[in-house]
Amino acid sequence: MKLFCTPNSPFSRVARVLVDELGLAAAVEITTVTVRDPDSELLTFIVSGKVPALYIDDSHTLCDTRMIAQYLAHTANRDNVTASLHNIEDYAFEGFCLSFLESICVWVREARRAPAEVSEQILQLERARAVRCLLYLEKNLEKLQQPFGLAAIAVVCAMDIASRRLDFSTDNKQQKLAQWFKKSSNRSSMLATQPLGI
Q1: What is the pLDDT of residues 36-65, one digit of tens each?
Q2: Could you count the other beta carbons within 10 Å of the beta carbon of residue 188?
Q3: Which SS3 state, helix, strand or coil, does residue 103 take?
Q4: pTM, to two decimals
Q5: Would you say 118 and 111 are in contact if contact means Cβ atoms under 8 Å apart?
Q6: 142: burial class by Cβ within 10 Å (0-12, 13-18, 19+)?
Q7: Are 66 and 97 in contact (CB under 8 A)?
Q8: Across the strands, what pairs with 75?
């Protein structure tokens, strides 16, 4: 298998962390590619050119983070990495965590625009959304303290990129979440996949 990533994509990082956590380093070749590039090697494998992408064989490449996580967990014979549809509460929570990561990515992209192009309204909306999400996670922390799976990895990656790129982090209303984040950030898989130069 070949996992296509970019060094600083939070969703790529989720997939890379999973490879490490599942002990699949020998089975999955991690390949760094360019995106938004008409000459990218990635386009040979997936026409969307989006990362992460997991090349399985000559006719199958997965390009959705949740699907990649499910496939990696299946390959490692682990059933506690991703939520099951048989437990709709956990499945919905996992979706929320992935959505939180996506909303942080939207905020980062907007904040990185040229100053004349930045929408202050979008920045305010995304910041307010992030505050709500942190409060929700603080109240539901026990769901993140189960086996370190897709939901928890997505949250750590979201909180990490928000801190690095947006100078946004927990406050005194989310002290338990802050402690969990600090501990989780020190896992070997998280340390090995830190973004470059940010």
Answers
A1: 888 889 999 999 999 999 999 878 999 999
A2: 10
A3: helix
A4: 0.95
A5: yes
A6: exposed
A7: no
A8: none
